[in-house]
Amino acid sequence: MKTITLQTYSAKELKAEHPDSFSKAHEKFQQREYENGLAWGDEMIDSLKKAVELAGYRLRNWELGDTSNRNNHIELDERDCDDLKGKRAIAWLENNLLSKLRDKKGELDPCKLTGYCFDYDIIESLQKSVKGGDTIKEAFRELAEVYAKHADLEWEHQLSEERFIEDSELNEVMFFEDGREV
């Protein structure tokens, strides 16, 4: 019997010594990630739903994806407050949503929604929208765009070389010279 010794590489080593093979391995990783979906997508949707619910709205229909999705939208049941603007909209947002997210000291804690970092982006967008002159309903509808931009950032990170290397190291994945996993 003959013994054959094969050289194996970490993702970092493969990138340094065999960049073409690293690219093939990274592409395979990206394909798997696309098949698995956006890693934090469910948490982002939960944050958005919780903000809508906490404000007393009911989400009637929605479609959310990254910015390549031209059908991103949020449909809400109509409410008396929909057309509030300016100071009245700011007061409504405070009384119906922000006050529920304040701690005992009165400080705003957006993470009280779900605990996921996207909570902050949602609250910040709503505040900015109503302070910028949007109606309450417009501010909530704009959350579809906020979601899409955040999804783009999440995909960019999830598919990055840095994440591929990190994921490979954490899972102790080794590669052959041609980029195949051991």
Major pleated sheet: 2 strands, antiparallel
Query: Low-confidence spans: pLDDT under 50, at least 5 residues?
Result: none
Could you give the order of strands across the largest sheet? 1-4
What fraction of the residues are assigned to beta strands by DSSP?
5-15%
Shape designation: elongated
Number of helices: 8
- Number of folding domains? 2
| Helix content class | 40-55%
Sequence of secondary-structure elements: EHHHEEHHHHHE
Distance between the termini: 22 Å
How confident overall, as mean pLDDT?
93
Radius of gyration: 23 Å
Q: Give the tally of β-strands.
A: 4
Find the structural class using helix and strand composition.
mainly alpha
Summarize the structure.
With 182 residues, the protein is mainly α.
Characterization of the model:
The protein has 182 residues and is mainly α. It has two domains: 8-37 and 161-176, no CATH class; 41-157, no CATH class. The protein has helices spanning 11-17, 19-36, 41-54, 86-96, 118-131, 136-141, 143-158, 161-170; strands spanning 8-9, 59-63, 73-76, 175-176. The chain has a two-stranded antiparallel ribbon. The protein has a two-stranded antiparallel ribbon with strand order 2-3. Helix 1 (11-17) packs across helix 2 (19-36), helix 3 packs across helix 5 and helix 5 (118-131) runs antiparallel to helix 7 (143-158). The longest helix is centred in the first third of the chain and has 18 residues, at 19-36. The two termini are 22 Å apart. The mean pLDDT is 93.
